[in-house]
Design brief:
- By secondary structure, the chain is mostly helical.
- The protein has two domains: about 70 residues, Winged helix-like DNA-binding domain superfamily/Winged helix DNA-binding domain (Arc Repressor Mutant, subunit A, Orthogonal Bundle); about 130 residues, GntR ligand-binding domain-like (Four Helix Bundle (Hemerythrin (Met), subunit A), Up-down Bundle).
- Strands 1-2 form a two-stranded antiparallel sheet.
- It is elongated.
């Protein structure tokens, strides 16, 4: 029998994740201050240099404000946080705000048509070849979730703008988790299958603008379906 091993977290990462959990749990709400460095290091079971490394990363990402000679203050992440905060939120075990997913879908509604148009313009053959495989898609939430993630990941890469890919990668894993909930509805799977067909037709006709319009339409529909569910 082969054991399944996982490497232990580096102390600085452990300290960072522990503090993020404490912030999200409300133990250290926005505007509050963290305990003194010495006390916090003892509490977390790490050295002070290790703690400082974690705090500096958290300051970079917008979780904290560090000023020499003053207590470290907790930021309001919804105002001061960056993309790394989003990644931490979606991969945490904390309950997300009720409007988080609709807001995320609203952002995708803006971004997806743009990177799809660019992908169809820059690399139509790759997009078309990928969409051909949609005909083999199993009619299950897991299969649709995986295919949809791969499609959008490929589109961001083919768009030629790596920022799109970096943004999308911040939601890896979480994307498919939420997508499986979305695709548990038959109408959602039917809507996406129709989208894949329409998008391939736009690609094969050499029409990036049509691809953009088709994508915008299905993004709007997916937001409505999510909210209706």
């Amino acid at each position: 029998m082969t054991a399944s091993w996982s490497a232990p977290l580096r102390p600085a990462i452990y300290a960072e994740q522990s503090l993020i959990t404490a912030i999200l749990d409300g133990e250290f709400p926005p505007g509050s201050t963290l305990p003194a460095e010495r006390d916090l290091a003892i509490r977390l079971g790490v050295t002070r240099p290790t703690l400082r490394e974690a705090l500096q990363r958290m300051e970079r990402d917008g979780w904290l404000v560090i000023q020499q000679g003053k207590p470290t203050r907790v930021n309001d992440i919804w105002i001061n946080g960056g993309l790394n905060v989003l990644s931490a939120l979606v991969h945490s075990n904390q309950e997300l705000p009720a409007d988080f997913i609709p807001n995320l879908l609203a952002v995708r509604q803006v971004l997806a048509p743009e990177y799809t148009r660019a992908a169809v313009k820059n690399n139509p053959q790759q997009v078309s070849d990928f969409l051909k495989t949609a005909s083999e898609l199993e009619d299950t939430p897991a299969a649709y979730a995986s295919f949809d993630w791969q499609l959008h990941h490929m589109l961001t890469i083919s768009s030629g703008n790596p920022i799109y890919t970096l943004i999308l990668n911040g939601f890896a894993g979480f994307y498919e988790q939420m997508a499986q909930r979305y695709f548990s509805r038959v109408e959602a799977r039917l809507a996406s299958r129709a989208f894949y067909t329409a998008l391939r037709e736009a690609v094969d006709s050499g029409n990036p603008s049509l691809a953009e319009a088709v994508t915008r339409s299905v993004m709007q529909a997916s937001l409505s379906l999510w909210q209706a569910g």
